[in-house]
Specification:
With about 120 residues, the protein is α+β, with helices and mostly antiparallel strands. It has one domain: Nucleotidyltransferase, domain 5 (2-Layer Sandwich), CATH 3.30.420.40. The protein is built from 2 helices and 5 strands. Helix 1 runs parallel beside helix 2. The protein is elongated, with a radius of gyration of 13 Å. It starts with a strand and ends in an 8-residue tail after the last strand. The C terminus is likely disordered.
Length: about 120
């Protein structure tokens, strides 16, 4: 499982194993889509995940799911555009891309990681 915390100054990704131990961490530049745009935000998320995978000696395809939270994705239309950029069309429509204001983020299944390839 990978968790991503993206903001206006940095993006951090952490990979945890089934025992909830951190096995890899990665970092990239800012991923607030209001600050760096949709493409820049998506690139930072991918870079942070790739860095965490390298530290954990894993490939993205080895991950069971992802939780991605981004500052600046509170507006619905922007959140939808980020979702389209980061996630494939076949992804389950009930899952969301949380923003900093969300209190109960959802876990995203493996299909969501395929958008990063």
């Amino acid at each position: 499982m990978v968790g991503v915390d993206g903001g206006g100054t940095k993006t951090e990704a952490v990979i945890m194993d089934a025992s909830q131990r951190v096995i890899g961490e990665g970092r990239a530049g800012p991923s607030n889509p209001l600050r760096v745009g949709i493409a820049g935000a998506a690139a930072a998320v991918r870079e942070a995940i790739d860095s965490a995978c390298a530290a954990a000696k894993l490939r993205r395809g080895d991950l069971s799911g992802a939780q991605i939270g981004l500052a600046g994705a509170r507006r619905r239309e922007l959140r939808e555009r980020m979702r389209e950029t980061l996630m494939p069309l076949r992804a389950h429509p009930g899952n969301t891309l949380p923003s900093d204001g969300d209190r109960a983020p959802r876990i995203l299944p493996l299909e969501y990681l395929h958008a990063f390839y």
